[in-house]
Design a protein that fits this description.
106 residues, 2 helices, alpha+beta, Alpha-Beta Plaits
Length: 106
């Protein structure tokens, strides 16, 4: 087994585990419940870790992890065509002038 990834909290290692397993790459999480040991143990030794079960697939798994961590957001930010305000992708209306936004704006 080889360690693929480690992070301060469980969110990202758990997400990566799910994504890799969807590709048929078996992984396990270690240190899921060790956060309470920080202080008695070095903090980074308590971080959740994602481990690859099949060493033969390490290069493939590393490539997928790198791609997942570097993936751009699905929606890009945009600018309101009326007032020019910069808007994050989650907004369906301009918070400044109230214009309803539709489709992809530049």
């Amino acid at each position: 087994m080889k360690k693929l990834y480690s992070a301060q909290n469980i969110s990202l290692p758990a997400y990566l585990k799910t994504a890799l397993e969807e590709q048929g790459i078996v992984c396990i999480l270690r240190n899921e419940y060790l956060a309470g040991g920080a202080g008695e143990l070095p903090p980074t030794d308590c971080w959740p870790e994602l481990w690859l079960v099949d060493d033969e697939r390490y290069a493939e798994a590393r490539k997928l992890v790198t791609a997942l961590l570097a993936a751009p957001e699905e929606h890009e930010s945009h600018t309101c065509p009326d007032c020019g305000e910069h808007l994050e992708p989650q907004f369906s209306a301009c918070w400044r002038c109230g214009r309803e936004l539709s489709g992809s704006l530049g």
